[in-house]
Amino acid sequence: MNILVSCDTNYLNPLKTMLYSLFLTNDNYISIYILHSSISDENIKELENYIKDKSNSKARLINLKVVDEFKKAHTTFYYTSEMYFRLIAYKYLPEDLDRILYLDPDTLILNSLMELYKSDFEENYYMAAIHTIPTVQSANKARLILTSEKSDIVNYYNSGILMINLKKAREKSYDDKIINYIEHSPKAGLMMPDQDLLNVVFRNKIKEISELKFNYDARRYSTYKVKYGYELEDVMLDTAILHFCGKRKPWKGNYVGKFNSLYQFMWKQAVVKDNK
User: Fold this and answer.
1) In a domain, 59, yes or no
2) Residues β-bridged to residue 108
3) Which terminal CB of the chain, N or C, has fewer other CB atoms within 10 Å?
């Protein structure tokens, strides 16, 4: 299984926590490709050793440093240039790879990923989940239609978990459209930059996957429970990917959420014990 991650130094500990949960729940051999622009060689080596140790040598890290991409992109402390890398990943990955699963570092893997990993793309470039909060969906669609002048935007997908069709991306590249949109969009038009970009450029080329199984928004426990009858037990048994969306993160102070205790346990196993 091929996994893609992208982050800067600030997210290395959350990345370790995600990877620790991945190794606990997926026992197949895993190749982890990290796209970044600024992580030091020392930190990459430490991460390589961490992966070898925590996976019992059943995973490897492939370091891919990106330079001179998206220099004119809108970035902030919260939204770094690394967020765009997933959309051009095929340029840096080996040509013999036809698919890869991108995972945000702010996730926990609770069950096997193979159902998602083996899913049929049906000629789409990506597979992604829609976070089905009607007011959020409507607001994001309206905002993008207004700022991009694309009237055929039907859904708004979350970019934190993406099955990427590398074969399709190589057949027809969208690099020019991606770069043009980044460099010429007004700053106010990119509220969630990489996610907005995904939904504009690839608006008719994304296959929907289950948000409950493959991109469960940890903030929405009560909503899912009321709307779908999806209880805590269902999450632990059926959800593959738990996503801590939003600016409030469980590794930061004063985080309050249904899954905070679970995350703190994983963090302790993955990071605290590793640093002792």
Assistant:
1) yes
2) 242
3) C
> Residues 10-52: pLDDT tens digits?
999 999 999 999 999 999 999 999 999 999 999 999 999 999 9
Residue 276 lies in a domain: no
- How many structural domains compose the chain? 1
Among 176, 93, 79, 87, residue whose Cα is nearest residue 126:
87
What whole-number distance in Å separates Cα of residue 110 and Cα of residue 215?
Answer: 11
Q: 175-189 pLDDT, tens per residue? A: 878 877 777 665 545
Q: What angle do the packed helices 12-25 and 260-267 form, to 10 degrees?
A: 100
Residues 209, 116 contacting (CB under 8 angstroms): yes
Helices marked H in the chain — which ranges? 12-25, 41-54, 114-117, 134-148, 166-171, 175-184, 193-201, 211-214, 221-228, 232-238, 260-267
Residue 148 has, within 13 A of its CA and on its CB side, a CA count of 26
Domain presence at residue 134: yes
Give the domain extent around 100. 2-271
CA dist., res. 29 & res. 22, Å (int): 11
The answer to whether residue 159 sits within a structural domain is: yes
